[in-house]
Amino acid sequence: MFNHTAIALNESVLAYDLNEQRYLFIAGNICSVLGITAKELHQDNGLWDRLINKTELAGIQERVKNLTPNSPIELTYSITTPQYAVKNIADKKRLIIDDATGHKILISVIIELPANNHLEEPAQSYVLDKPDEQADATLGKQFLNSLVDSQTSFLIRVDINGNYSFVNQQYLKTFGYAAEDILGKHFSITTIPEETHLCQNAFIECINNPGKVIPLLHKKPDVQGNLHDTEWELMSIVNKNGEVCEIQGIGRDITAKLKIEEEIKRTAQKLDDFIENLTDSFFILDNDWRFVRVNAAFEKVWGKSRTEVLGKIIWDVFPSFVNTVFNSAFYEAKTKQKSVKFMTHFEPLNKWFRTVVYPSAEGITVFSKNVTYEMRAQEEALWAQNNLEALINNTTDKIWSVDTEGRYVYMNNAYIEQTKAITGIAPKRGKYSYKNMGYPQHIIDEWMAYYKRALQNETYTVIIEGINGNTKQPAFYEVNFNPIYAGNGEIKGVGCFAHDITARLKTEHEVLGQNKRLRNIAALSSHELRRPVASLLGLINLIDMENLQNPDNKQIFKYLQVVSTEIDDVIRLIVDHTFTGD
Q: Which domain of life is it from (predicted)?
Protein backbone atom coordinates (compact mmCIF):
# COMPACT_ATOMS: atom_id res chain seq x y z
CA MET A 1 0.00 0.00 0.00
CA PHE A 2 1.06 3.60 -0.53
CA ASN A 3 2.03 5.57 2.58
CA HIS A 4 0.25 8.87 1.86
CA THR A 5 1.41 10.72 4.98
CA ALA A 6 5.18 10.57 4.63
CA ILE A 7 7.94 9.47 2.32
CA ALA A 8 10.15 6.68 3.63
CA LEU A 9 13.83 7.48 3.91
CA ASN A 10 14.75 4.91 1.28
CA GLU A 11 12.07 5.98 -1.21
CA SER A 12 12.21 8.43 -4.11
CA VAL A 13 8.99 10.07 -5.24
CA LEU A 14 8.38 11.53 -8.68
CA ALA A 15 5.35 13.42 -10.02
CA TYR A 16 5.04 13.52 -13.82
CA ASP A 17 2.51 15.59 -15.77
CA LEU A 18 1.43 13.27 -18.58
CA ASN A 19 -0.33 16.09 -20.44
CA GLU A 20 2.70 18.44 -20.47
CA GLN A 21 5.21 15.58 -20.58
CA ARG A 22 7.39 16.99 -17.81
CA TYR A 23 8.31 16.26 -14.20
CA LEU A 24 6.59 18.52 -11.71
CA PHE A 25 8.91 17.56 -8.87
CA ILE A 26 11.33 14.85 -7.77
CA ALA A 27 11.74 14.12 -4.06
CA GLY A 28 14.10 11.80 -2.24
CA ASN A 29 17.55 10.57 -3.17
CA ILE A 30 16.85 9.64 -6.77
CA CYS A 31 20.55 9.49 -7.59
CA SER A 32 21.29 6.66 -5.16
CA VAL A 33 18.47 4.56 -6.66
CA LEU A 34 18.69 5.22 -10.40
CA GLY A 35 22.24 6.56 -10.60
CA ILE A 36 21.00 9.78 -12.27
CA THR A 37 20.37 13.21 -10.80
CA ALA A 38 17.07 15.05 -10.62
CA LYS A 39 18.56 17.72 -12.90
CA GLU A 40 19.42 15.13 -15.54
CA LEU A 41 15.92 13.67 -15.34
CA HIS A 42 14.32 17.12 -15.69
CA GLN A 43 16.42 17.75 -18.79
CA ASP A 44 15.72 14.35 -20.39
CA ASN A 45 12.29 12.81 -19.78
CA GLY A 46 13.26 9.52 -21.42
CA LEU A 47 16.42 8.94 -19.40
CA TRP A 48 14.70 6.71 -16.82
CA ASP A 49 13.19 4.50 -19.51
CA ARG A 50 16.58 3.91 -21.12
CA LEU A 51 17.87 2.42 -17.87
CA ILE A 52 15.22 -0.33 -17.90
CA ASN A 53 15.92 -3.72 -19.48
CA LYS A 54 14.60 -3.52 -23.05
CA THR A 55 12.83 -6.84 -22.67
CA GLU A 56 10.81 -5.38 -19.79
CA LEU A 57 10.30 -1.79 -21.00
CA ALA A 58 7.46 -2.45 -23.48
CA GLY A 59 5.40 -4.29 -20.88
CA ILE A 60 5.93 -1.56 -18.30
CA GLN A 61 4.91 1.18 -20.72
CA GLU A 62 1.75 -0.78 -21.66
CA ARG A 63 0.72 -1.16 -18.01
CA VAL A 64 1.34 2.55 -17.31
CA LYS A 65 -0.67 3.48 -20.40
CA ASN A 66 -3.63 1.51 -19.09
CA LEU A 67 -3.32 2.87 -15.55
CA THR A 68 -6.50 4.50 -14.21
CA PRO A 69 -7.01 6.74 -11.15
CA ASN A 70 -8.71 3.87 -9.38
CA SER A 71 -6.08 1.19 -10.08
CA PRO A 72 -2.66 1.82 -8.48
CA ILE A 73 -0.05 -0.81 -9.35
CA GLU A 74 3.35 -2.02 -8.18
CA LEU A 75 6.04 -3.09 -10.64
CA THR A 76 9.34 -4.85 -10.09
CA TYR A 77 12.01 -4.80 -12.78
CA SER A 78 15.76 -4.47 -13.30
CA ILE A 79 17.76 -1.46 -14.47
CA THR A 80 21.34 -0.81 -15.47
CA THR A 81 22.60 2.55 -14.16
CA PRO A 82 24.98 4.84 -16.10
CA GLN A 83 27.64 3.48 -13.75
CA TYR A 84 26.90 -0.05 -15.12
CA ALA A 85 25.38 -1.23 -11.84
CA VAL A 86 22.50 -3.70 -12.24
CA LYS A 87 19.71 -3.10 -9.71
CA ASN A 88 16.29 -4.53 -8.93
CA ILE A 89 13.64 -1.85 -8.50
CA ALA A 90 10.20 -1.82 -6.88
CA ASP A 91 8.07 0.90 -8.51
CA LYS A 92 4.66 1.87 -7.02
CA LYS A 93 2.58 3.97 -9.41
CA ARG A 94 -0.69 5.87 -8.98
CA LEU A 95 -2.56 8.11 -11.41
CA ILE A 96 -4.12 11.31 -10.02
CA ILE A 97 -6.30 13.88 -11.83
CA ASP A 98 -5.46 17.50 -10.96
CA ASP A 99 -8.75 19.27 -10.16
CA ALA A 100 -7.52 22.68 -11.36
CA THR A 101 -6.18 21.65 -14.74
CA GLY A 102 -7.65 18.22 -15.37
CA HIS A 103 -4.11 17.03 -16.10
CA LYS A 104 -3.15 13.43 -15.42
CA ILE A 105 -0.37 13.30 -12.81
CA LEU A 106 1.60 10.05 -12.57
CA ILE A 107 3.01 9.51 -9.07
CA SER A 108 5.90 7.03 -8.82
CA VAL A 109 7.44 5.81 -5.57
CA ILE A 110 10.57 3.74 -6.20
CA ILE A 111 12.91 1.84 -3.95
CA GLU A 112 15.92 -0.34 -4.59
CA LEU A 113 15.39 -3.99 -3.68
CA PRO A 114 18.16 -5.91 -1.89
CA ALA A 115 20.80 -7.42 -4.15
CA ASN A 116 19.75 -10.99 -3.25
CA ASN A 117 16.13 -10.31 -4.17
CA HIS A 118 16.03 -12.08 -7.55
CA LEU A 119 13.05 -11.40 -9.74
CA GLU A 120 11.17 -14.52 -10.67
CA GLU A 121 9.43 -12.77 -13.52
CA PRO A 122 10.38 -9.44 -15.11
CA ALA A 123 8.11 -6.44 -14.74
CA GLN A 124 5.61 -8.08 -12.49
CA SER A 125 2.46 -6.04 -12.00
CA TYR A 126 0.16 -6.10 -9.03
CA VAL A 127 -3.11 -4.23 -8.56
CA LEU A 128 -2.97 -2.85 -5.04
CA ASP A 129 -5.78 -3.17 -2.59
CA LYS A 130 -8.22 -0.38 -3.18
CA PRO A 131 -11.20 1.05 -1.33
CA ASP A 132 -14.23 2.43 -3.10
CA GLU A 133 -13.66 4.95 -5.89
CA GLN A 134 -14.45 8.03 -3.84
CA ALA A 135 -12.19 6.96 -0.98
CA ASP A 136 -9.43 6.11 -3.42
CA ALA A 137 -9.66 9.51 -5.08
CA THR A 138 -9.51 11.16 -1.69
CA LEU A 139 -6.49 9.05 -0.79
CA GLY A 140 -4.74 10.07 -4.00
CA LYS A 141 -5.35 13.76 -3.38
CA GLN A 142 -4.12 13.46 0.18
CA PHE A 143 -1.00 11.73 -1.08
CA LEU A 144 -0.37 14.42 -3.70
CA ASN A 145 -0.95 17.21 -1.18
CA SER A 146 1.45 15.50 1.24
CA LEU A 147 4.11 15.42 -1.44
CA VAL A 148 3.51 19.05 -2.38
CA ASP A 149 3.75 20.21 1.23
CA SER A 150 6.89 18.16 1.83
CA GLN A 151 8.77 20.11 -0.81
CA THR A 152 11.48 22.56 0.22
CA SER A 153 10.65 24.64 -2.85
CA PHE A 154 7.81 27.13 -3.06
CA LEU A 155 4.75 25.97 -5.01
CA ILE A 156 2.10 28.59 -5.84
CA ARG A 157 -0.74 29.16 -8.27
CA VAL A 158 -2.51 32.38 -9.22
CA ASP A 159 -5.62 32.68 -11.35
CA ILE A 160 -5.88 34.76 -14.53
CA ASN A 161 -6.73 37.81 -12.41
CA GLY A 162 -3.48 37.48 -10.51
CA ASN A 163 -5.10 36.23 -7.28
CA TYR A 164 -3.52 33.44 -5.23
CA SER A 165 -5.41 30.14 -5.60
CA PHE A 166 -2.82 27.87 -3.93
CA VAL A 167 0.37 28.13 -1.83
CA ASN A 168 2.25 25.24 -0.21
CA GLN A 169 3.38 25.01 3.41
CA GLN A 170 7.00 25.88 2.61
CA TYR A 171 5.90 29.22 1.14
CA LEU A 172 3.70 30.02 4.18
CA LYS A 173 6.41 28.93 6.62
CA THR A 174 9.18 30.98 5.00
CA PHE A 175 7.23 34.24 4.75
CA GLY A 176 5.15 33.83 7.94
CA TYR A 177 1.70 33.94 6.32
CA ALA A 178 -1.39 31.98 7.13
CA ALA A 179 -3.17 30.59 4.08
CA GLU A 180 -6.22 32.80 4.65
CA ASP A 181 -3.95 35.88 4.64
CA ILE A 182 -3.15 35.57 0.94
CA LEU A 183 -5.47 33.05 -0.77
CA GLY A 184 -7.84 34.96 -3.04
CA LYS A 185 -5.70 38.12 -2.87
CA HIS A 186 -3.58 39.67 -5.60
CA PHE A 187 0.08 38.61 -5.80
CA SER A 188 1.15 42.27 -5.44
CA ILE A 189 0.56 42.03 -1.66
CA THR A 190 3.64 39.79 -1.42
CA THR A 191 5.92 42.06 -3.46
CA ILE A 192 7.71 45.29 -2.74
CA PRO A 193 6.54 48.37 -4.69
CA GLU A 194 9.89 48.76 -6.40
CA GLU A 195 9.62 45.28 -7.98
CA THR A 196 5.87 44.82 -8.51
CA HIS A 197 6.37 45.56 -12.21
CA LEU A 198 8.75 42.59 -12.51
CA CYS A 199 6.06 40.21 -11.27
CA GLN A 200 3.40 41.86 -13.43
CA ASN A 201 5.55 41.56 -16.57
CA ALA A 202 6.27 37.87 -15.85
CA PHE A 203 2.54 37.25 -15.26
CA ILE A 204 1.59 38.83 -18.59
CA GLU A 205 4.33 36.90 -20.43
CA CYS A 206 3.02 33.61 -19.00
CA ILE A 207 -0.53 34.48 -20.13
CA ASN A 208 0.71 35.26 -23.65
CA ASN A 209 3.03 32.23 -23.92
CA PRO A 210 1.29 29.05 -22.72
CA GLY A 211 3.73 26.22 -22.01
CA LYS A 212 6.79 28.48 -21.92
CA VAL A 213 8.82 28.61 -18.71
CA ILE A 214 9.27 32.23 -17.60
CA PRO A 215 12.12 32.93 -15.15
CA LEU A 216 11.74 35.60 -12.46
CA LEU A 217 14.12 36.99 -9.84
CA HIS A 218 12.75 39.38 -7.26
CA LYS A 219 12.64 40.23 -3.57
CA LYS A 220 9.72 39.15 -1.40
CA PRO A 221 9.04 40.57 2.09
CA ASP A 222 7.99 38.34 4.96
CA VAL A 223 5.48 39.44 7.58
CA GLN A 224 8.28 40.96 9.71
CA GLY A 225 9.41 43.10 6.78
CA ASN A 226 12.57 41.11 6.08
CA LEU A 227 13.40 40.81 2.39
CA HIS A 228 14.09 37.44 0.76
CA ASP A 229 15.74 37.06 -2.62
CA THR A 230 13.67 34.53 -4.57
CA GLU A 231 14.10 32.68 -7.85
CA TRP A 232 11.06 31.43 -9.79
CA GLU A 233 10.06 29.37 -12.82
CA LEU A 234 6.56 30.35 -13.92
CA MET A 235 4.35 28.52 -16.42
CA SER A 236 0.76 28.95 -17.51
CA ILE A 237 -1.73 26.08 -17.02
CA VAL A 238 -4.41 25.49 -19.65
CA ASN A 239 -7.78 23.78 -19.16
CA LYS A 240 -9.40 21.14 -21.36
CA ASN A 241 -10.34 23.83 -23.85
CA GLY A 242 -6.74 25.00 -24.20
CA GLU A 243 -7.42 28.22 -22.33
CA VAL A 244 -5.02 29.60 -19.73
CA CYS A 245 -6.71 29.18 -16.38
CA GLU A 246 -3.88 29.59 -13.92
CA ILE A 247 -0.21 30.46 -13.56
CA GLN A 248 1.91 27.95 -11.64
CA GLY A 249 5.17 28.93 -10.00
CA ILE A 250 8.00 26.88 -8.50
CA GLY A 251 10.42 29.01 -6.53
CA ARG A 252 13.05 28.96 -3.85
CA ASP A 253 14.66 31.32 -1.36
CA ILE A 254 18.12 32.17 -2.66
CA THR A 255 18.99 34.79 -0.03
CA ALA A 256 21.63 32.59 1.60
CA LYS A 257 22.87 31.50 -1.82
CA LEU A 258 23.29 35.11 -2.96
CA LYS A 259 25.09 35.99 0.27
CA ILE A 260 27.44 33.06 -0.24
CA GLU A 261 27.95 34.05 -3.87
CA GLU A 262 28.60 37.64 -2.82
CA GLU A 263 31.08 36.47 -0.22
CA ILE A 264 32.72 34.24 -2.80
CA LYS A 265 32.81 37.20 -5.17
CA ARG A 266 34.39 39.43 -2.51
CA THR A 267 36.87 36.70 -1.64
CA ALA A 268 37.67 36.21 -5.31
CA GLN A 269 38.14 39.96 -5.71
CA LYS A 270 40.47 40.03 -2.71
CA LEU A 271 42.37 37.13 -4.22
CA ASP A 272 42.54 38.93 -7.56
CA ASP A 273 43.78 42.09 -5.84
CA PHE A 274 46.33 40.07 -3.91
CA ILE A 275 47.58 38.35 -7.05
CA GLU A 276 47.77 41.62 -8.96
CA ASN A 277 49.69 43.30 -6.16
CA LEU A 278 52.18 40.48 -5.81
CA THR A 279 55.74 41.50 -6.56
CA ASP A 280 56.33 37.90 -7.64
CA SER A 281 55.62 36.94 -11.21
CA PHE A 282 52.49 34.76 -11.17
CA PHE A 283 50.94 32.67 -13.92
CA ILE A 284 48.69 29.64 -14.38
CA LEU A 285 49.00 27.08 -17.18
CA ASP A 286 46.26 24.60 -18.07
CA ASN A 287 46.90 20.95 -18.91
CA ASP A 288 47.59 21.93 -22.53
CA TRP A 289 50.36 24.32 -21.35
CA ARG A 290 48.30 27.37 -22.27
CA PHE A 291 48.38 30.56 -20.22
CA VAL A 292 45.16 30.94 -18.21
CA ARG A 293 46.13 33.76 -15.85
CA VAL A 294 49.02 36.21 -15.41
CA ASN A 295 49.51 39.18 -13.09
CA ALA A 296 51.03 42.64 -13.51
CA ALA A 297 54.41 41.52 -12.17
CA PHE A 298 54.55 38.84 -14.88
CA GLU A 299 54.10 41.46 -17.58
CA LYS A 300 56.83 43.64 -16.08
CA VAL A 301 59.36 40.87 -15.44
CA TRP A 302 58.96 38.86 -18.62
CA GLY A 303 58.22 41.75 -20.93
CA LYS A 304 55.01 40.24 -22.32
CA SER A 305 51.51 41.71 -22.05
CA ARG A 306 48.44 39.65 -21.14
CA THR A 307 47.07 39.87 -24.65
CA GLU A 308 50.31 38.39 -25.96
CA VAL A 309 50.23 35.30 -23.74
CA LEU A 310 46.70 34.42 -22.58
CA GLY A 311 45.45 31.35 -24.42
CA LYS A 312 48.90 30.77 -25.94
CA ILE A 313 51.14 27.75 -25.32
CA ILE A 314 54.06 28.67 -23.09
CA TRP A 315 56.63 26.92 -25.31
CA ASP A 316 55.47 29.05 -28.25
CA VAL A 317 55.59 32.29 -26.25
CA PHE A 318 58.90 31.44 -24.56
CA PRO A 319 60.80 28.97 -26.77
CA SER A 320 63.90 29.72 -24.70
CA PHE A 321 62.26 27.81 -21.80
CA VAL A 322 62.77 24.54 -23.66
CA ASN A 323 65.71 22.47 -22.37
CA THR A 324 65.99 24.60 -19.24
CA VAL A 325 65.24 23.95 -15.59
CA PHE A 326 61.87 25.68 -16.15
CA ASN A 327 60.91 22.98 -18.64
CA SER A 328 61.95 20.07 -16.42
CA ALA A 329 60.41 21.58 -13.27
CA PHE A 330 57.04 22.22 -14.98
CA TYR A 331 56.87 18.64 -16.28
CA GLU A 332 58.00 17.19 -12.95
CA ALA A 333 55.32 19.10 -11.02
CA LYS A 334 52.63 18.02 -13.48
CA THR A 335 53.56 14.35 -13.81
CA LYS A 336 54.44 13.70 -10.16
CA GLN A 337 51.74 16.03 -8.77
CA LYS A 338 54.10 17.59 -6.27
CA SER A 339 55.41 21.11 -5.80
CA VAL A 340 58.87 21.90 -7.18
CA LYS A 341 61.19 24.69 -6.02
CA PHE A 342 64.30 25.89 -7.80
CA MET A 343 66.51 28.92 -8.43
CA THR A 344 68.20 29.52 -11.75
CA HIS A 345 69.79 32.12 -13.95
CA PHE A 346 67.75 32.75 -17.12
CA GLU A 347 70.30 33.67 -19.73
CA PRO A 348 68.03 35.42 -22.32
CA LEU A 349 66.98 38.01 -19.72
CA ASN A 350 70.22 37.86 -17.71
CA LYS A 351 68.15 37.54 -14.56
CA TRP A 352 68.01 35.22 -11.57
CA PHE A 353 64.66 33.67 -10.61
CA ARG A 354 63.53 31.85 -7.47
CA THR A 355 60.54 29.77 -8.59
CA VAL A 356 57.90 27.52 -7.01
CA VAL A 357 55.60 25.35 -9.14
CA TYR A 358 52.34 23.99 -7.68
CA PRO A 359 50.38 21.27 -9.51
CA SER A 360 46.60 20.91 -9.68
CA ALA A 361 44.08 18.84 -11.61
CA GLU A 362 43.63 21.77 -14.02
CA GLY A 363 47.34 22.41 -14.67
CA ILE A 364 50.11 24.20 -12.78
CA THR A 365 50.47 27.48 -10.90
CA VAL A 366 53.85 29.21 -10.93
CA PHE A 367 55.28 31.86 -8.62
CA SER A 368 58.59 33.23 -9.93
CA LYS A 369 60.48 35.96 -8.08
CA ASN A 370 63.13 38.09 -9.76
CA VAL A 371 66.07 37.87 -7.33
CA THR A 372 68.68 39.35 -9.64
CA TYR A 373 69.45 42.30 -7.35
CA GLU A 374 69.52 40.01 -4.36
CA MET A 375 71.92 37.60 -6.06
CA ARG A 376 74.17 40.45 -7.18
CA ALA A 377 74.12 41.85 -3.66
CA GLN A 378 75.09 38.42 -2.35
CA GLU A 379 77.88 38.19 -4.90
CA GLU A 380 79.13 41.63 -3.94
CA ALA A 381 78.84 40.78 -0.24
CA LEU A 382 80.76 37.54 -0.85
CA TRP A 383 83.38 39.44 -2.84
CA ALA A 384 83.69 41.99 -0.04
CA GLN A 385 83.84 39.25 2.56
CA ASN A 386 86.53 37.38 0.66
CA ASN A 387 88.53 40.56 0.23
CA LEU A 388 88.08 41.44 3.88
CA GLU A 389 89.13 37.93 4.86
CA ALA A 390 92.18 38.22 2.63
CA LEU A 391 93.01 41.62 4.13
CA ILE A 392 92.58 40.42 7.70
CA ASN A 393 94.57 37.26 7.13
CA ASN A 394 97.31 39.10 5.26
CA THR A 395 98.45 40.98 8.36
CA THR A 396 100.68 39.90 11.24
CA ASP A 397 98.40 41.73 13.66
CA LYS A 398 96.24 39.46 15.76
CA ILE A 399 92.48 39.93 15.30
CA TRP A 400 89.75 38.03 17.13
CA SER A 401 86.33 38.47 18.72
CA VAL A 402 84.40 36.81 21.54
CA ASP A 403 80.71 36.69 22.51
CA THR A 404 79.24 37.83 25.81
CA GLU A 405 80.34 34.55 27.44
CA GLY A 406 83.93 34.94 26.29
CA ARG A 407 83.68 32.29 23.58
CA TYR A 408 85.53 32.70 20.30
CA VAL A 409 83.45 34.02 17.41
CA TYR A 410 86.17 34.90 14.91
CA MET A 411 89.98 34.62 14.68
CA ASN A 412 92.36 35.50 11.89
CA ASN A 413 95.22 33.25 10.88
CA ALA A 414 97.84 35.33 12.72
CA TYR A 415 95.98 34.93 16.02
CA ILE A 416 95.45 31.19 15.52
CA GLU A 417 99.11 30.61 14.68
CA GLN A 418 100.33 32.77 17.59
CA THR A 419 98.11 30.98 20.13
CA LYS A 420 98.99 27.53 18.79
CA ALA A 421 102.73 28.35 18.85
CA ILE A 422 102.50 29.42 22.51
CA THR A 423 100.08 26.80 23.89
CA GLY A 424 100.29 23.96 21.37
CA ILE A 425 96.47 24.17 20.97
CA ALA A 426 94.74 25.90 18.05
CA PRO A 427 91.78 28.02 19.25
CA LYS A 428 88.41 27.06 17.77
CA ARG A 429 85.20 28.97 17.22
CA GLY A 430 82.75 28.43 20.06
CA LYS A 431 85.45 27.53 22.60
CA TYR A 432 86.13 29.74 25.60
CA SER A 433 88.95 32.23 25.11
CA TYR A 434 92.03 31.35 27.19
CA LYS A 435 90.22 28.59 29.10
CA ASN A 436 91.57 25.04 28.72
CA MET A 437 94.49 26.46 26.75
CA GLY A 438 97.21 25.89 29.38
CA TYR A 439 97.14 29.49 30.68
CA PRO A 440 97.39 30.03 34.43
CA GLN A 441 94.25 31.21 36.20
CA HIS A 442 95.49 34.75 36.78
CA ILE A 443 95.97 35.19 33.01
CA ILE A 444 92.45 33.88 32.36
CA ASP A 445 91.02 36.24 35.01
CA GLU A 446 92.98 39.15 33.55
CA TRP A 447 91.57 38.61 30.05
CA MET A 448 88.01 38.05 31.28
CA ALA A 449 88.30 41.37 33.08
CA TYR A 450 89.37 43.03 29.83
CA TYR A 451 86.35 41.52 28.00
CA LYS A 452 84.02 42.59 30.79
CA ARG A 453 85.09 46.23 30.48
CA ALA A 454 84.30 46.21 26.75
CA LEU A 455 80.97 44.42 27.35
CA GLN A 456 80.11 47.32 29.65
CA ASN A 457 80.37 49.63 26.62
CA GLU A 458 83.96 50.81 27.15
CA THR A 459 86.38 51.22 24.25
CA TYR A 460 89.98 51.23 25.42
CA THR A 461 93.59 50.18 24.72
CA VAL A 462 96.12 48.38 26.92
CA ILE A 463 99.77 47.38 26.47
CA ILE A 464 100.43 43.77 27.43
CA GLU A 465 103.74 41.96 27.74
CA GLY A 466 103.76 38.51 26.21
CA ILE A 467 105.77 36.07 24.10
CA ASN A 468 106.43 36.22 20.39
CA GLY A 469 105.12 32.91 19.04
CA ASN A 470 107.80 32.68 16.35
CA THR A 471 110.91 33.84 18.24
CA LYS A 472 109.74 32.75 21.71
CA GLN A 473 111.20 36.07 22.89
CA PRO A 474 109.46 38.57 25.15
CA ALA A 475 107.25 40.90 23.19
CA PHE A 476 104.92 43.79 23.85
CA TYR A 477 101.45 44.14 22.33
CA GLU A 478 99.09 47.06 22.09
CA VAL A 479 95.59 45.57 22.35
CA ASN A 480 92.41 47.48 21.39
CA PHE A 481 89.11 46.33 22.93
CA ASN A 482 85.88 47.43 21.17
CA PRO A 483 82.25 46.55 21.97
CA ILE A 484 80.35 44.81 19.12
CA TYR A 485 76.73 45.92 18.73
CA ALA A 486 73.71 44.09 17.33
CA GLY A 487 71.21 45.82 15.03
CA ASN A 488 69.07 46.81 18.01
CA GLY A 489 72.02 48.46 19.77
CA GLU A 490 72.57 45.60 22.21
CA ILE A 491 76.19 44.62 22.87
CA LYS A 492 76.70 41.08 21.60
CA GLY A 493 80.47 40.68 21.94
CA VAL A 494 83.95 42.17 21.95
CA GLY A 495 86.30 42.77 19.03
CA CYS A 496 90.05 42.65 19.79
CA PHE A 497 93.01 43.91 17.76
CA ALA A 498 96.59 43.22 18.96
CA HIS A 499 99.57 44.93 17.35
CA ASP A 500 103.19 43.94 18.16
CA ILE A 501 104.88 47.12 19.42
CA THR A 502 108.13 45.53 20.61
CA ALA A 503 110.20 47.20 17.87
CA ARG A 504 108.45 50.49 18.46
CA LEU A 505 109.17 50.39 22.18
CA LYS A 506 112.82 49.56 21.45
CA THR A 507 113.06 52.51 19.09
CA GLU A 508 111.39 54.72 21.64
CA HIS A 509 113.90 53.54 24.27
CA GLU A 510 116.81 54.31 21.97
CA VAL A 511 115.40 57.74 21.19
CA LEU A 512 115.06 58.41 24.91
CA GLY A 513 118.74 57.42 25.43
CA GLN A 514 119.83 59.58 22.59
CA ASN A 515 117.89 62.50 23.98
CA LYS A 516 119.60 61.97 27.34
CA ARG A 517 123.00 62.03 25.67
CA LEU A 518 122.09 65.15 23.77
CA ARG A 519 121.08 66.79 27.01
CA ASN A 520 124.48 65.81 28.46
CA ILE A 521 126.24 67.25 25.42
CA ALA A 522 124.28 70.43 25.81
CA ALA A 523 125.28 70.57 29.47
CA LEU A 524 128.95 69.99 28.67
CA SER A 525 128.80 72.52 25.91
CA SER A 526 127.25 75.13 28.14
CA HIS A 527 129.53 74.57 31.14
CA GLU A 528 132.83 72.89 30.24
CA LEU A 529 133.33 74.35 26.77
CA ARG A 530 132.12 77.88 27.39
CA ARG A 531 134.91 78.71 29.91
CA PRO A 532 137.97 77.90 27.71
CA VAL A 533 136.27 79.41 24.70
CA ALA A 534 135.71 82.63 26.65
CA SER A 535 139.38 82.60 27.69
CA LEU A 536 140.37 82.03 24.07
CA LEU A 537 138.35 84.95 22.90
CA GLY A 538 139.81 87.18 25.64
CA LEU A 539 143.43 86.24 24.80
CA ILE A 540 142.85 86.91 21.12
CA ASN A 541 141.71 90.39 21.98
CA LEU A 542 145.04 90.96 23.92
CA ILE A 543 147.28 90.16 20.94
CA ASP A 544 149.09 93.17 19.51
CA MET A 545 148.22 92.78 15.89
CA GLU A 546 150.21 95.82 14.80
CA ASN A 547 153.46 94.67 16.38
CA LEU A 548 153.57 90.94 16.46
CA GLN A 549 157.13 91.13 17.85
CA ASN A 550 155.78 92.60 21.04
CA PRO A 551 157.26 90.47 23.88
CA ASP A 552 153.80 90.38 25.53
CA ASN A 553 152.45 88.45 22.55
CA LYS A 554 154.77 85.59 23.35
CA GLN A 555 153.17 85.11 26.78
CA ILE A 556 149.68 85.37 25.24
CA PHE A 557 150.53 82.65 22.72
CA LYS A 558 151.54 80.35 25.59
CA TYR A 559 148.18 80.94 27.27
CA LEU A 560 146.43 80.27 23.92
CA GLN A 561 148.09 76.86 23.73
CA VAL A 562 146.90 75.99 27.24
CA VAL A 563 143.33 77.09 26.43
CA SER A 564 143.36 75.10 23.16
CA THR A 565 144.36 71.97 25.07
CA GLU A 566 141.43 72.48 27.46
CA ILE A 567 139.07 72.90 24.52
CA ASP A 568 140.37 69.67 22.97
CA ASP A 569 139.81 67.80 26.26
CA VAL A 570 136.25 69.05 26.46
CA ILE A 571 135.56 68.02 22.83
CA ARG A 572 136.90 64.53 23.58
CA LEU A 573 134.61 64.37 26.61
CA ILE A 574 131.59 65.36 24.47
CA VAL A 575 132.44 62.67 21.90
CA ASP A 576 132.70 60.06 24.64
CA HIS A 577 129.25 61.02 26.03
CA THR A 578 127.73 60.94 22.52
CA PHE A 579 128.67 57.32 21.77
CA THR A 580 128.88 55.76 25.21
CA GLY A 581 126.46 57.78 27.29
CA ASP A 582 129.07 57.96 30.07
A: Bacteria
